[in-house]
Amino acid sequence: MKAVGIQQRYKHTRDEVIRQCQQIGRDPSHVQLIAVSKTVGVEGVREAFNAGAQDFGENRPDQIIEKFSALPQVRWHFIGNIQSRRISDIVSASTLIHSLFKYDHVGKINSAAAALQKVQDVLIEVNVSGETSKGGLKVDEVRDFVMSCAEFDHVRLRGLMTMAPQGDPVRAKEVFTDLAALKDDLCAVLDADRARYFDGLSMGMSEDWREAVCAGATMVRIGRAIFSDGFE
Ligand SMILES: *Cc1c(COP(=O)(O)O)cnc(C)c1O
User: Ligand 1: residues within 6 Å at CB?
Assistant: First the structure.
C-alpha cells in the first residue's frame, strides 16, 4: 500500500462526500467523515492525517490506544465490540463510542469516565435489519434503553448507529431511513436537554455511504475506500 495512495484516496473520498451533500441540498459540514483505519498502522493514519483527516475509527481496544497515543490531537471513534474488561481503555481514548447496546456496559463506561473526569459521548447501536450476524438492540428495545441511561451523569447519549446489509443499496437505504425515523421518535420523547444532544446518526460505509447521506447520516464510517488499494 503506497502512502501517497492513502492521501489521494482520503481527499477523493472527502470531495465525493461534499459533492453528494451539495447534490441533495445538505450542508457538507453536517456530515463528518470518519476514516476507519483498522486495517492500517500508525503510518497509514498519519498519511490520512496529512491529507486533512481529523476523525478516525477503530474497532480494537489495543489499536485505538496505540493510535490515540501516536496522534492524540485528532478524534478517535470506537466502532467495535465492547468488552467489559477493556472499557477503561476504550473510554480513555475515545471521543465517541458508536457501539453501545448492553445495559451492563453503561454503568462501567460511566465509572471509567468519572475516573477520568470526562463525560463520555456514546451512540446506541441498533440492529435495524435484524441480521443475526450483527450486534445492536432491536428497534423496539431502544426506547427503554435510552430511558434507563438517564441516571448516568458521565455518559451522554449522542444518537444512533447502524450497519446495513451488504450488497443491496435499496435495502440499505430503507435501513438508514428507519434509523433516522427512530432518532426523531426518540428526540420527541426525551426531555429538551437530552434531546438537544441526541443529534447523531452514524451510518454508511465504503459501499453504502451515499444512501446513508441521503437518509440523513451525520457521520459516515469509511475504511476500504480510503485505506485499500483495490477498492473501487
Ligand atoms: C470496518 C468498519 C467500517 C468500515 O467499513 P468499510 O467497508 O471498510 O468502509 C465501518 N463501520 C464498522 C463498524 C466497521 O467495523
Answer: 36, 38, 59, 79, 163, 205-207, 221-225
pLDDT tens by residue, 184-211: 999 999 999 999 999 999 999 999 999 9
221 Cα to the center of ligand 1, angstroms: 6
What percentage of residues in the chain have a pLDDT greater than 90?
95
Please indicate, yes or no, whether the overall pTM of this predicted structure exceeds 0.90: yes
The residues with which 120 forms a beta bridge, in sequence order, are 155
Atom in ligand 1 nearest the alpha carbon of residue 228: 8
pLDDT tens-digit readout, 8-65: 999 999 999 999 999 999 999 999 999 999 999 999 999 999 999 999 999 999 999 9
Cα-to-centroid distance, 35 and ligand 1 (Å): 9
Ligand 1 mean position to 61 CA, how many Å?
Answer: 16
Residue nearest atom 12 in ligand 1 by C-alpha distance: 79
- Residue 225 to residue 214: CA distance in whole angstroms: 19
- Residue 166 in grid coordinates: 451488504
Q: How far is the CA of 107 from the centre of ligand 1 (A)?
A: 27
Q: What is the pLDDT of residues 169-187, one digit of tens each?
A: 999 999 999 999 999 999 9
Residues 6+ apart with CB under 8 A from 65: 89, 92, 93
Q: Which of 66, 107, 57, 71 is nearest to 87 (CA)?
A: 107
Q: Name residue 185's beta-bridge partners.
A: none
Check: CB of residue 205 under 8 Å from CB of residue 226.
no
Residue 82 CA to residue 227 CA, distance in Å, equals 24
